[in-house]
Amino acid sequence: MEGISDIVYHGTTLGRMADIAKTNRIMTSGTFGSDSDEIGNKGKFYFLSTARSPLAFKEGYPLVKDGKVRFTLDGRKLGQKYGGTPLDYWRDRTSGGKSEMEDRIVTDEAWIENASDYIKEIVVYLPMLKGRVTDPDSILDAIASGKMTKYEYIPNLDIRYSEMRDLKEINDYAQSNGIPLKIIPTAEKENEFYMNKQLSAITYDDFEKMRKELGVDPKETSFAGKERDAFHTKLRNATTYSLLPGLAEVVNMLERGELSSEGYPRRDAMIAVKTDLYNWSNTPNFSETEPPDYDDPQKEEIRRKFFEGQIIVTEQDIDGIIERLTRFNYEAPSIFGTEFQGARSRPYMRPYLQQFTSYMRQNELANVRELVKHLEEKIKQVQGA
């Protein structure tokens, strides 16, 4: 492989950077379902996109307006463990024949572990001050005369508590690992985010001092609200609409030489339990009252999985997967390719991607098309036995 540049950059959000800070690992993207990614990945199943210039996050990979993060990576250290390949996504879209190259880090691992070994600097754009026009007529005057529009800076009261929490997590991580953290606190200086130097950047302590002096004090969700939000997250995660959990169950059954949806919970039972639990969680002080319980063992087991946030696969899910792989096999590669694409940015779906990675390596399958064909043949063997 061609290798990785000595210095590269990766852009993300405050929330994703906080996840990196908590786990000290960077989640990679999967090539599953994307022909272009598969071609650029040199036979590897995962990759991390990096840019050779921070300007890429303005022109090529635009990030969210506020609360964005980019960090600098040591390409030399990365190159000691990972392969790399240059890609050019913009050669047909940039003016003057110029192009900004991506250095893609390719790997068979779902995570880049020990991220602090590679991160050299973290830059955050989170404006505590935003401009406000004080005289609307001055906009027209400025256009006519070439003078500056009249405006003033005011505290940004739209900053959320979650952003303050994530920023603290990032600062603690940076301090404990000796990584410089630079915060750009004013909207006027946003362009510095895309430069190599941030002359207006301040430290986290100075940012907190500014926040308190300006009276920006976003409120934390109440304890009951946090409990409810956490439980609702479990309800959502347990009832994922992805096809991959069902596909994983089918793969497990085929490995055992069997194929049957018997014993899996009914979808109507799952929906009934979810509705009961959702209604219970929306009652005042729900965490202090007993949740619904059931005489039906199947519903009781479904309830347990909801409380643990464990993905529930129903008999209809299994039957649907088998039907897609056999009766509708002509459209299966496209459908499952889309499913893999959608799952690769969701951390809670990562175990399924890792399972399929291992299975595909063991059976020498290069992509989703080959996986679908392989499973179709396995189903025919089991059904014909």
Please provide a written account of the structure:
- The protein has 385 residues and is of the alpha+beta class.
- It has two domains: 1-127 and 156-217, no CATH class; 224-384, no CATH class.
- Helix content is 45%, strand content 17%.
- It is built from 15 helices and eleven strands.
- Strands 1, 5, 9, 10 and 11 form a five-stranded mixed β-sheet that branches. It has a four-stranded antiparallel β-sheet with strand order 3-4-7-6, with helices on one face. Strands 2-8 form a two-stranded antiparallel ribbon.
- Helix 1 packs across helix 6.
- The chain is flat.
Short account of what is shown:
The chain has 385 residues and is an alpha+beta fold. The chain is built from 15 helices and 11 strands. Residues 90-99 have low confidence and may be disordered.
Sequence of secondary-structure elements: EHEEHEHEHEEEEHEHEHHHHHHHHH
Termini gap: 45 Å
Please give the radius of gyration in angstroms. Answer: 25 Å
Specify the structural class. alpha+beta
- Oligomer state equals single chain
Low-pLDDT sequence parts: 90-99
**Rounded mean pLDDT score:** 87
Helical fraction equals: 40-55%
For the sheet with most strands, the description reads: 5 strands, mixed
List the SSEs and their pairings.
Elements: E1 7-13, H1 14-23, E2 25-27, E3 29-30, H2 35-40, E4 46-51, H3 56-59, E5 68-74, H4 75-81, E6 83-87, E7 102-107, E8 111-113, E9 119-133, H5 137-145, E10 151-155, H6 161-176, E11 181-186, H7 204-214, H8 223-238, H9 244-256, H10 267-281, H11 297-308, H12 315-326, H13 332-343, H14 350-362, H15 368-384
Parallel strand pairs: 9-11
Antiparallel strand pairs: 1-5, 2-8, 3-4, 4-7, 5-9, 6-7, 9-10
Helix pairs in contact: 1-6, 8-11, 9-12, 10-11, 13-15
